[in-house]
Amino acid sequence: MKVLLLVNPFSSSVTARTRVVIRKALAGDHDVELAETARRDHATRLARGAAADGVDVVVVLGGDGTVNEAANGLAGSATALGVLPGGSTNVFARAIGLPNDPIEATAELLDAVEAGSIRRVGLGSANGRYFCFHVGMGYDAALVEQVERRASLKRWAGHPLFMYAGLTTFMRHFDRKNPHFSVQYPDGDNAPDGYFAICCNTNPYTFVGNRPFDIAPDAGLDRGLAMVTVRSLRADRFLRVMGKALAANGSLQKDRWIHYRHDVDSLVVEGINSKAFPYQIDGDYLGEIERIEFRHEPEIMDLVLPLER
Question: Residue 8 — φ and ψ, nearest 5°?
């Protein structure tokens, strides 16, 4: 099998030793070529080129942003995406059932390829850009922006950095008094007062250490999108919402300050009074925008999935 090992050398968990060990493991039974990314969106170009050259599987060793870029290069092609955790959180790799250690994940990926565990899955799209697991808007994206301002610390600080950024964003860097956007559905349903929203293609939303942040239990690669809109950032309400998400007992979706829809094919998020709001896709902050059109794109990409244990 022809394999491209696509590595982001700047990702938090990627080391020279890891690259060597993983490439050697993949090359045991496959024809492997190595390529490294050098700038934003480079992985998209490399993955698209691999698909055009008839590569069977593009294996990505990097963070969620690199995985997203590769998925955008492979969507609609016959080349499969394989994922190895190389970032600080690795939401997508863990969401599909891989261990958070890249060497262990390589063994499981090889078992899956040998067994033919490759499935055509659905992705979400936001204004035409595909996403693997979620798009965050409002407070969530403002938090990611603060983390990326301290990107040099991600490799060393990891989850403590996210917690610090979450607190400082809540206290100083985000307007918690006025809603930022509305969420509109084709059937007329709407949430007119959004402060924080996540459009999910998979669940969980993220991980706190080894604990999943479970906000959309109905989301999955073979289902439509799930949308979670938080309608207040008053401290006591927000803390209650976060506690329910961590509890993962289904109570979050019933909270009065949550608007929740699942199995959605399309929706629109618009800034209130045409004001732009921050957003991020699969963990990468992309700036501010006035309107996002979401669509679910079923069976758009081949994905290597670990064997059920």
Answer: -100, 105
Number of folded domains in the chain? Answer: 2
Q: Flag whether pLDDT at 160 surpasses 90.
A: no
CA–CA distance, 180 with 290 (Å, rounded to integer): 10
What CATH number did the domain enclosing 41 receive?
Answer: 3.40.50.10330
Domain final residue, candidates 116, 147, 174: 116
- Measured CA to CA, the distance from residue 68 to residue 236 in angstroms comes to 34
Strands annotated E in 14-145: 31-36, 57-62, 80-85, 118-126, 129-131, 134-138
CA distance 145 to 59: 28
Tell me if 156 is assigned to some domain: yes
Same domain? For 147 and 268 the reply is yes
C-alpha gyration radius of the chain: 19
Cα distances from 94 to residues 60, 189, 212, 224, 238, in angstroms, run 14, 33, 10, 20, 26
Other beta carbons within 10 angstroms of residue 210's beta carbon come to: 7
28 and 61 co-located in one domain:
yes
pTM of the predicted model, to two decimals?
Answer: 0.92
Q: How many CB atoms lie within 10 A of CB 276?
A: 13
35 within a domain of the structure (yes/no): yes
Same-domain pairing of 52 and 156: no
Domain that holds residue 179: 131-297
Give the distance, in angstroms, between the CA of residue 175 and the centroid of all CA atoms in the same chain: 25
**16-39 confidence digits (pLDDT tens):** 999 999 999 999 999 999 999 999
Q: Rounded to whole angstroms, how far apart are CA atoms 193 and 60?
A: 38
Alpha carbon distance 81, 282 (integer Å) = 16
